[in-house]
UniProtKB/TrEMBL annotation:
Source organism of the structure: Penicillium citrinum
Database matches in Gene3D superfamilies: TolB, C-terminal domain (2.120.10.30)
Name of the protein in question: Uncharacterized protein
UniProt xrefs under InterPro entries: 6-blade_b-propeller_TolB-like (IPR011042)
Amino acid sequence: MYNGLLVPRYGASPCNGGLYRIETAFVDATLTNTTMAATLEDYTEPFALTPSTGGTSIDGDGNIYISDTNL
């Protein structure tokens, strides 16, 4: 996801709602550092208050598209 600062970020939305983001460098580091993997949630930050969704997509311009689970 493009955040305007050229810092690559990964976005995730758990099934109970909320959209969180984390720099991809932290996610990449977990491939070789098991200690980092255990503390990965310390590097996440809330991004948007969203309901529980059926799916989330982000385009190249940073627009977020959220589907409704009740359809």
